[in-house]
Amino acid sequence: MTTDTHEPQGAGDMRRRGFLRGAALGVGAVGAVAGGAAALTGATASAAAPGATGSPRVAFHGPHQAGIAQSVVRSTAFLSFDVTAADRRELTELMHTVTERARFLTAGGTPAALGITDSPSDSGTLGPQVPGDGLMVTVGVGASLFDDRFGLKDSKPLRLTGMPAFDDDDLQPAWCHGDLSLQLSAPNPDTVLHTLRDIARHTRGGMQVRWRMDGFTSPPRPSGTPRNHLGFKDGTANPDVSDPAVARQLLWVDGGGEPAWTTGGSYQVVRLIRMLVEFWDRVSITEQERMFGRARDTGAPLDGVHEFDTPRFAQDPTGDVIPLDSHIRMANPRTAQTADSRILRRGYNYDRGMDSNGNLDMGLIFVCYQQDLERQFTAVQKRLAGEPLVDYISPFGGGYFFALPGVKDRSDWLGSGLLA
Amino acid sequence: MSAEPEPAPAAGPRADAEPAHPIPAEPVTGADVDPSAAAPADAADAADAADESAEPAEPATTNEPEPETAGTDGPADSDESAEAEADPEAQAEPGPVPPVATASAPERPETSRGKRARRWQITAAAAAVAAAVTAGVLVSAGGHGRSDADGTTHVAADGLPHTAVDASPGSCGLGWGGSGQAKPRPGTQVFDLHNSAASATEVDLIDPRTGKIYGEVEGLAPTTSRPMLVDLGSGTYAFKCLQEDTDAVTGPTVKVPGKAAQGPATLPVNQHQLIPPTLSYQRWIGSRMTELARDTGVLKNDIDRGDLTAARRDWLTGHLVYERMGAAYDTFGDADGVINGTVALDPDAVHDPDFTGFHRIEYGLWHGRSAAQLRAPAAGLDKAVRDLRATWSTRRMDPASMGLRAHEIIENAEQFELTGRTDYGSGTNLATARANIDGTREILAELDSLLAPRDPGLSRLDASLDRATADLDAQDHDGTWTPLDRLTQARRERINADFGDLLERLAPVAAILDVRRTA
Predict the structure, then answer these.
(1) What gap in Å lies between CA B399 and CA B24, rounded to an integer?
(2) Which residues pair with A81 in a beta bridge?
(3) What DSSP line would sit under A114-176, residue for residue?
(4) ipTM confidence score
């Protein structure tokens, strides 16, 4: 598709706009521009495409959304929205708009030229050309979307519910749940914020932010999996979902009694977990390591040497080396029976200033994906109940969502299977 | 003190029509002169005047700039503008009235709401075009922001085709479409406009058949180039060069072939066209002032006789009348701060003697103050309103601000009412927001004849206004309004969504009604 701007919109139409501000589409970097460039001067598409920051674009179209199977990147914003669209038609329009903006912002290109008809179509915070910059946009739907408002009651994913309060949670209602989830991830925070600003501008009438948490991933210190605010590497034991068999077993929904439209999607759990870092810093290193079951410096299991050594729980049945109540042992006992309860973690650190008592307010945006909420996240969470670590953390928000299947091609849109 | 404020001291709308010319960027002289009298220089002059690199060696005769075809500024103007411009007196008189009165009152602890004194020259289009300036080194231009005017189109580092075009009156629009020049093409592209003349110029890319503007660059300095980013479909186009102190010149008409849909464009609005709606609006404001003075008199009487229950009711009535007049704050000058000012968030600020007006009285009425304590503020408010009304007939609203006010009323409502910033105890922010919608509707109604042919989003704007109105009205319980903090989360999100949507639809109104020179 080469001509975003000359498609079905009528001549002279300012092409703004449906119920929402609508999509004043820009010119895709790889579409019209590159084609035109080659025609005019023989320049190659790559020469014509802007790529200032050098981050490779992540494909927008495919059977799955971006931002799930890919590795975490440096910067993210996680948002929950309440839908204010009045009916199903407006909700459909909202999803079209989100899709169009995400498609353009992911591909990058020149923002639409609106002449004297409007204020500029782009905030300009990424410069005159939107670079793409490895942006990943991931959209999910919450259980509340399937209430009476939009006639979706019969389409709810089988296992989608509101997030319950677990034993050690201290949930704040204003930081929980939501009709939609939106995660924006990119190598640079300006790209994330530009995307958020753009999508919000185009959807003000259709949805309102319920809560938002920005996050980041640290670089490897000094190597391996990035560390969280507790100083430990976080995500070492993630399943290798680049193996299609593993992804099929653990990650993607495909049948199993689920509504047909859910195929290619995945259950998304987000938990906002405050880390009491001052308290944690007053705990001895031995105790810290025994809570996790890993060495802080290397990330290795306490019975190993290197980060990715496999702990041998069977050879330590009484927990002399890796305590029985350590985090890694309770979360993933590495038995045949627990193999299918593994989850794909994509956590980000957050930092949001100070607490009222003068302590640092920081923690983890825990995000995980799984094929089956009950079989995976809930099972893990129940195993973790009462682990020693709970004294140093406080889950206060988040929600359960279902990450929609991918957008197949240019004619497809997020939620098409659900709403069409 | 007359019962009905006259719109102007001098009789007749023409005297009224004299606006305070806000900023002298638009040359008044010559604007009403028949542009055909000032035909562009001939090709030889143009070649002399032009930057050598921007000038084709032998301009094709079919490519010469053409003078305007008529005494008006061509088909760009709708009928009403032609009428306005046909009246030389409309601009002949000097403007004795200062331009927009400032809303700031330095001696006050805090001014009233933050009306932005936005200058109309700062246009959306200019901002959009500016985006391309930093696009990077242009392939053909070595970073000078222009391509060689060698009759070709180059693809620059921004990935867009760039075409160099001259924008001086003598060679306006030369560089594309003629023989030996760059071939017209549809799509998003950049024209690198070069001003080879001796004074600054404004450049529009228009469809000469309709007069619609597709792109605009203002204040193009002599010997400089700036990019114009446009989205062109199949159709006819011409550059229009409006050099300072010179009549507009329209360059050759160029046809873009094919069947591509045309990009966004609309008709410009000039100052003359905005004068009638401004006058009409000013008269409407005059009527509201009469209503307001009656209401503040009632409020004063309530307080004087110690009936604070009645005072709380009548306070709201009067305050909402004032809030409906939202589009006129700038014109009220310092009086706005006296009548409707707020104070800093510091808890002691409410005791500042300079805290006056509606919000001062509101604070007292809803914080257990006695009638005796409120007598002076009530009398002060009533006096300020009557003084304002008495001087209203001598005030002039700036026509150029009409479009800005149309969206800034709601911008202010979102910023100060939907956040509760202006609440001093009455919990009536939603009522105020509702009154602000009334005020916006009034100004939009005045502008409708200009907007209808220019803004295809009007019906959706109306729908957005209706939705916001309905959601606010649902919080009006027989004159008692739900305070912001008592709204359910869903209701509050819905109202926020209504206003967010409304604001996005009002932004084009301001952009389209930006005053533009048309001749």
Answers:
(1) 14
(2) A180, A209
(3) -TTSSS-SS--TT-SSB--TT-EEEEEEEGGGGSTTTT-GGG--TT--PPPPPTT----GGGB
(4) 0.89
Tell me the nearest-neighbour CA distance from B132 into chain A, angstroms.
5
Share of chain B above pLDDT 70, in %: 70
Contact by Cβ (8 Å): B204, B191:
no
Rounded Cα distance, A113 and B125, in Å: 9
CB B478 within 8 A of CB B400: no
Q: Quickly count: other Cβ atoms within 10 Å of residue B210's Cβ.
A: 16
Distances (CA, A) of A371 to A101, A178, A418: 28, 20, 18
pLDDT surpassing 70 at residue B26: no
Looking at the complex, does the CB of residue A15 fall below 8 Å from at least one CB of chain B? yes
Q: Which residues pair with A197 in a beta bridge?
A: none
Could you tell me which CATH class the domain B271-512 is placed in?
mainly alpha
- Give the DSSP letter of residue A100: H
CA distance B278 to B391: 18
- Pick from A6, A13, A120: which is nearest to B456 by CB? A13
- The shortest CB-CB distance from A205 to any of B160, B215, B501 is to B501
| pLDDT tens by residue, B228-255 | 999 999 999 999 999 998 999 999 999 9
For residue range B169-210, what is the model confidence (pLDDT) as tens digits? 999 999 999 888 999 999 999 999 999 999 999 999 999 999
Q: Name the nearest CA neighbour of A101 among A70, A122, A80.
A: A122
Query: In this complex, do B511 and A117 lie within 8 Å of one another by their Cβ atoms?
Result: yes
- Where in chain B are the domains? 34-81+120-256, 271-512
pLDDT confidence band for B65 (50 / 70 / 90): very low
Measured between CB atoms, which of B135, B153, B155 is closest to A129?
A: B135
